[in-house]
Amino acid sequence: MKAGIFKPLKSKPFRSLFGAQLFSDLGNWLDLIALQVIVAYHWGLDETAIASVIIVLGLPWVIIGPFASVFVDRLPKKAVMIVCLLLRVVFVAGLFFAPNLYILLLFVFLKGTVSALYDPARQSAIRMIVPDSLLPEAVTLSQLSVNMMKIAGPALGGGIIALFGPKSPFLFEAAGFLIAVIFLLFLPNLKKLEKSEEIEPAGKPEKRKYWFDFSEGIKHIAHTPLLKISIILSSAAFFIIFLYDGLFVFIAQHLGFSEGNFGLLISAVGFGSVAGSLLLGQWTKWNRKPIHLMASSALFSGTLIIAVGLGGVGVFNLPPLAWIIGACLLGLLGAGESVPYGFVLQSETPKHMMGRVSAAAMSLQTFSMLIAPAAGALLARWLGVPSVMIGAGMATILLGSFMLLAIMKGGALNQPPKEKQIQA
């Protein structure tokens, strides 16, 4: 028990998979910083160009990922991940040599497409190689990688740009993807596990219809209450977060943060996320009632968001340190939503359809993330930035309250995921 969150790393296959994820996640954040610096500083383009990059980056997850994931479930997962990483190296080279915004957007889209295929394959691999008893720790480690690279990636990217120029992070990103490939080469062949988990539709032992497989994943979400409600909660939470995320720099000005110490506020959120992931990985009793934790985290984080909004209109006049501590708590509570969601996604999905289900869920979340910033900007112009924060906090509290009411009704939401495992 002392190993806590790191117990899954005793497994050699998971070590290989996790090592690949670390370098893949790092590459993603190096990429994001480099793209924005090139567009805004190197080419001197406006906010519309930055917005187009963000939209094109997320578009493949919405329009391609869910449909292509059917093939991901049919193909060998190890081969899919390796091919996707190698293609990402090629497309990163395209980003490095892109002469203008249009060529850049093309390679951003292509890279986003293979990323949207890589992640379902990675989720499937986790489900195959990690025993059910270690799923909470494995999912938490995976989320920890994401949260850590959100902090390390931008900091490292900024340093690389300062030393070697605006396009240099792409070279480091490509190297990271190649290192990830090396890690995956040590991953055992998953073909036997995949075959043992496959279920052929009755009457069609050999050829499975594409739309049958596609709809099977959607139907599974619709007919699994715990999974369905966690996806809805997570997607709504993403929408609310990204409603105010782009406005955070403006609310920071209202709170008295300068250009120099604004970074401390963002770093505090990231630090809280990492601390929350470590805490949940060490204490895994929450895995029996993950929705309870998600709902409770939403209630408390909504209260903090309202406090930030009220600070923006002068109701609360606190020193910067107090707001930094609040930002840290906000990040910690964010882990209280993201980690249980990842566990529900894994534990409530049969291994043979992990790719389809995870891609469908990611599609809904990404769609929320894409439309929210525009809605937030419009609301900010109409109502003001602090009002958007207060509204977002109230919406978060309502979301958590709705979830608690659904829990109080009992039924499937109160059953521990491991007791409702769908046997593949």
Automatic annotation (TrEMBL):
It comes from the Bacteria. GO terms for cellular component: plasma membrane. The keyword Hydrolase does not apply. It holds the Pfam family MFS_1. Keywords: Cell membrane, Membrane, Transmembrane, Transmembrane helix, Transport. The chain crosses the membrane at residues 49-72, 79-97, 170-187, 229-250, 262-281, 293-316, 322-345, 357-382, 388-408. It is found in: Cell membrane. Residues 1-418 form the Major facilitator superfamily (MFS) profile domain. InterPro entries: MFS, MFS_dom, MFS_trans_sf. It is a multi-pass membrane protein. Gene3D superfamilies: MFS general substrate transporter like domains (1.20.1250.20). SUPFAM superfamilies: MFS general substrate transporter. One of its GO terms (molecular function) is transmembrane transporter activity. This is Putative MFS family arabinose efflux permease.
